[in-house]
Amino acid sequence: MSDTRADGEVGEITGVQVNLFCSDVERCALFFEALGLRRAFRFPPTGTPSKLEVEGAGVRVGFDAVDVANDVADLGVVPPRDRSAEVALWVSDVDALHARAVAAGGRSLRAPMDGPDGRLRYAWVLDPEGHQIKLLQRRQ
Predict the structure, then answer these.
(1) What average pLDDT does the segment 78-99 reach?
(2) Nearest 5 degrees, angle CA 106-CA 57-CA 14?
(3) How many whole angstroms separate alpha carbon 101 and alpha carbon 4?
């Protein structure tokens, strides 16, 4: 996949990252780490983090402090109130990861269930700050 730069040259997209704005980035990152993603980045290196990133299956999920996003870049970010997006995690065992998510402080929105055509099993949870997470498993 490519994009066109301002100078007309085509540049390659070299990665994909989803960023979630959080009041407590440490709490958000710890939840995803409890699901099995590994920590990949922290800023600043010491003290209270304003940015943390976790990684799994070649995708990074970043957690940015709401106040820093507004103070540094004046983005007008507000903590999530309503769900308008979700992070989808493809997993080998939806039931086990759903249980792990709840034990890690998540809230179950929909217990594990089979899709209508039987090809998928899925469940939904909210992380501790209300971000919606969809867990998906392909059936054989």
Answers:
(1) 85
(2) 120
(3) 40
